[in-house]
Fold this protein.
Amino acid sequence: MEELLRTTDITLIPLARTLLESEGIDSFELDVNMSVLEGSIGILPRRLMVRSGDLARARTVLWENGVRFDG
């Protein structure tokens, strides 16, 4: 698994997962429990992971749909 993105924006990961799913790319969200524990202050990022072989395609899908992030 490779990290596709890391963010504290609670809307970005659901958007990215929906776009990836529509293209048949599986993804997995990490650090969900840690970000829940810290409450709503948004200091702990969540990570979205994809298979290594899907990383380049996943980045392209997000870029083509206007999703901008560092990574």
Remarks:
- The first strand starts at residue 2 and ends at 7.
- Residues 61 and 69 are 13 Å apart (CA to CA).
